[in-house]
Every structure is written in structure tokens, then in C-alpha cells.
Amino acid sequence: MTVIDPDGPSRFRLLASHIAGRAIDVAEATAGQPAYTDGRVIFVSADRSVDEQRREVVLQSALLASGSLDKSVMKMLRARPRLACRYLTLEGYRALAELAGRLPVGADLRSAGHLESSSSAESLAIARSRRKLPEPPDWFGQIRPVALLRTDAGSPTSVGTKDLRLSFGQPDVDTADDEEDQSGHAERSKILKLFEAPAFSSRALSEYIRKLLGSSRSYGDDSAGAELDLGGLRRARGTAAGTRPQPIRIHFADADKPGAAVGVGGALYPEWDVHTGSYRPEWCRVVDFALAEGPETAVSVATDDVLRRRLARIGLGLKIFRARPEGDELDTEALVDLLVDLRSGYSPPGGVYLERRKSARDLGVLILLDASGSSSDTDRHGMAVHEHQRQAAAILATTLEDLGDRVALYGFRSDGRHAVQLPAIKSFDQRFGVRERGRLAHLRPSGYTRLGAGIRGAAEILKARAGTPHRLLIVLSDGYAYDHGYEGKYAEADVAKALEEMRADGVACLCLAIGTDLDTGALGRVFGRASLAGAATLAELSPRIDELFMSALARLSESR
Question: Is 475 helix (H, G, I), strand (E, B) or coil?
């Protein structure tokens, strides 16, 4: 039986649950952290008074009740802390205004300030504008989109009367990709989206229309992948639906595209559509380029002797030494030479064995550092996940380079399928010196995580530039794949497919989640338990880093 502290935050559970309209727990946040909710628990500031904590609980519960923290909105706020702060200012007062009609406490708190907004959509639109807005009060806390998306608890679990109202107006149809298709296909795609509106919620009708228009997309629990115009699916010529299309290089030779002159490369990569069981050829534009050097001080690199000793045991190729006095097997050539010399009257040394010794490094490693906005989240101690991962990348790159391995360090982030970036911090032909460490310090988190495209781009760089028989991709990320039209089962399936392609090409992969909570479910399904590890710091993984490397490399034989 759980004992509830009558003087602790749990005293507010009934208040929070009543306001939110569902069961909500209340707990203290880590010292120094502002109030927030993940949709299931409201975390109040640890260093505030009872009255201040009560205000935090009321505000966070009101946000949940008013739909301010719906999943659809959180997707737009993810990796945009400034936008989330402006949105919180507007939605906080709107939520309190709705609460004022139910509870006196709502009216009392609302009197502290007021901003005009009639809905979460209007608040989001105002937050995106250039309108000057005040900063939210301290007791408003903050919105953490990642926490709400991961728990999938931002949306209400019960349906109210306002949710039952039908709107027969034209739904918002995303036309971001319509320009790529012929006009007929684009129009047909819009028609399909119209039939997905609430007013046309009949599944039988939607299925019938889909069949008439020749679409075979299956229904699932999530709508990820909807970025594709349903009538505009293209297949690679002369290949089956499940055949892997090859990447198409992007040429920057035109006068208005001088990318080649500054070392910019890129290609169009396919993406796996789990709904159709086929690839979308030339779907993602991945561009790699040298990251600009910033004025910041270069990243300092800590020494990890345990890591060095462990990594020294791997990445070694066998070198054969002939005519040794001891060895693994007879050297037939040396034995013949010995017999000839003895018959001729000579007395040469009697070394007739072959010795195989691991002495030559033959490992190429590309470290792929998550530079998306989600890595700006902080851990329980207030340190950004990006900082943890950046330090881990610096230690790994330095150690492997000192051991004689071929090492490259790239970041990755995205903003839609047309803008997947791989900024190069260190290429295979560069030393991890002051300039490269300065680039690493200059890297700032932004954008989203289209992980499948990032893996495909990094794998191509490894295959083309590593120049070693053994190749390993190390992904430093929380692995939470998300981008426009890229999430859930769709994203997981694409990442798993990208890893399958990479291993078939002889490239191993290891995912290290440093400084972040490890989602063993989602990451385990994608990377596999043998190619996944998480810890608060890299030092915690150092004693078994050799096992992790070898386990990832061993999976290559399983995929062949």
C-alpha cells in the first residue's frame, strides 16, 4: 500500500484530476526545474511554497483540460522552445479563462493577467507572428513537448460535447508537396484528404473512394507518412515495388548552385513506406557540408583510460609473419627453403612457422551526432542532452583516432524530407584538431530527426570514404525519430529498413543514448538489443565498450 505524504505535492492530486477531467498525479520536479506535465503527472517546483505549487497545479491542469497540450500542437512546438514559451503565455490565460466559469480559483488566477485568444489554434498563430508578447509568469512553468509526445498523454481521454460538433467547412489540406506532382495527381490527393475530414468519417465510404482512385494505403494507428500525396506515388522504372532504389547524386554545377565549389555534396534517397510495403524513390534530399567554424572555444576532450584500453582490443586486423621460430602453423615455403639449405650444406636459422598477430588497425568509424532540437532537452541535473552527446563524440573521436582508426564526425538534423543535413565536423582525411573541435563547439541543436535519411546518408559516406574493410556507424541520439509526416510506426519501419540496407552493404551500426532516458521499447525494436546502449555518461559504458563494438560488428554476419 502506498503511503501518501499529507504535506507533499500529492495533496493536490484530487484538485488536478478534477480540473483536468482525468486521473492526474502530482510530484516534485528536480530541484531548480520549473513546473511542467507529461500528461500523466504534474511536476511542481521543489523550492516553492504551498500556495505557489497550488497555482502551478491549477495552471498545468487547466492546460490539459482546455486541449492546449494536444499531440497535434506538441508536434509543432517540438524543438522550438521560444515558440513554446510564447504559446504558453497565450494558452495559460485562455485555459484559466475557461476554468473561471467552473472554479473560483480560475477567476482569481486569471485576474493576474489577460490575453485575447479563443482557441489553441489562434494562440499558436499569434505565437508564430511578430506580435510582442509578455513573458509568462514563473508559476506558469513550461511546456515540454517531447515529454508529452512520449507519453502520448497530452490529449484528453474523454470526449466532451464540444468535441462532437461537426464542421462542414473545408478542412486544412497540406499542399507542401503538391508542386512535385502533376496537376491531376495533386487535385486527386486533395480530394482524398477531404474524405478524411470528420464530416466524412465513414470508413466504408473512405475505403470505397480509395479503391476507385487506385490507392492501396492501409489504415493504421498513426497517420505518419501522410506527407505523400496519395495519388502521386512514383515507382522506380523497371523494378518491383519492394526493390531498393539507389540514391541519385545531386550535382551542384549550375551557375546558381555553386555548392560544389565549397565542398557541398548530397543525394536523393528513398524512404520505406510501411503502409504500402514499398519504397518512395528519390524521396529525401540529404546534403553534407563542412560546418562553419565559430568563435567559440574548442570543445575540451577528457581522458578516459578505460575506454582507450577497451577500444585498443578491437579494430585490429591479422598480420602474418613468416619464418618464425614459433607460431600457429607450419610455413611451407620456409620449410622448403630450410630443406634446400640443409641439403646444400648451409645451417640457416630454423624458423619454419607462420605467426598471425593482430597489429594493423582496419576499422573505419563514422560518429553521427544528433543535432536536432530534441537534444536541447535537459537531464535531471539541468545539463543539456546535446552537451552530454557532444562530449561523448569528442572522446570517442579522439580515442579512436589516437589508436590509428579512420574516424569521421558528422552531425545530423532535418526540417522536412527536402532538408536533411549532415554537417561535417571532421572528415576521414582530417585530424581532430583545434579547428575541428571548434566546429563541434559551434554546432547548435535545431530542427527535427529524420533518422532513416540520416543513416542512409552517413552509410554512403562510410562506404565511399572510410577505405577500411570494417566499417561502423555510431549514432549518438535518443533515437526518437520525428519530422514532418515522419513518426510512429512509419518512422520506426523506415529506420529499421535503413539499418537493414546498411548491414547488407557491410556497415555495422551502434546506437548510444548518452544523457537521456532510454526508450528501450522503440529503440530496441529498431536497433536491436545487441546494437543499443544507454547511460548518463560515456564513462559508464567504457568498461564494456569493446563488447558493444564487437556485438554490432557481429550482426553483419547475421544479415548476410
Answer: strand
Alpha carbons 166 and 182: distance in angstroms, whole number: 32
With both helix axes pointing from N to C terminus, report the angle between 120-128 and 81-100 in degrees, rounded to the nearest 10. 150
CA dihedral (542, 548, 550, 551) in degrees, to 10, reads 160
Q: DSSP string spanning 1-12?
A: -PPP-TTSGGGG
Confidence (pLDDT) at 184: 41
Please report the beta strands in 467-551, taking only residues with DSSP state E, as ranges in sequence order: 470-476, 507-514, 532-535
Q: How many CB atoms lie under 10 A from the CB of residue 112? A: 12
Domain boundary among 125, 143, 160: 160
Q: Kindly list the distances between the CA atom of residue 233 and the CA atoms of 14, 276, 539, in Å, as whole numbers in the listed order.
A: 51, 10, 47
pLDDT above 80: residue 179: no
* Segments forming the whole domain that contains residue 343: 318-360
The count of other CB atoms within 10 Å of the CB of residue 464 is 10
- The pair phi, psi for residue 270, each rounded to 5°, is -75, 170
Identity of residue 117: S
Does a structural domain hold residue 442?
yes
Say yes or no to pLDDT of 278 above 70.
yes
How remote is the C-alpha of 145 from its chain's centroid? 14
Q: Is the sign of the CA dihedral 198, 199, 202, 205 positive or negative?
A: negative
- Residue 450 sits in a domain of what CATH number? 3.40.50.410
Query: What are the backbone angles phi and psi of residue 147, rounded to the nearest 5°?
Result: -65, -40
Amino acid at 149: L
Q: Which residues are CB-contacts of 292 (< 8 A; sequence separation ≥ 6)?
A: 439, 442
Query: What's the number of domains the chain is made of?
Result: 3
Please calculate the CA angle 279-283-287 and round it to the nearest 5 degrees: 130
Q: Is the dihedral of CA 57, 59, 62, 67 positive or negative?
A: negative
pLDDT digits (tens, 9 = 90+) for 372-406: 987 777 766 778 888 999 999 999 999 999 998 99
Enter the C-alpha cell of residue 380.
535531471
* DSSP for 10-67, written as a single string: GGGHHHHHHHHTS--EEEEPPTTPPPEE-SSEEEEPTTS-HHHHHHHHHHHHHHHHTT
Whether residue 368 lies inside any domain: the answer is yes
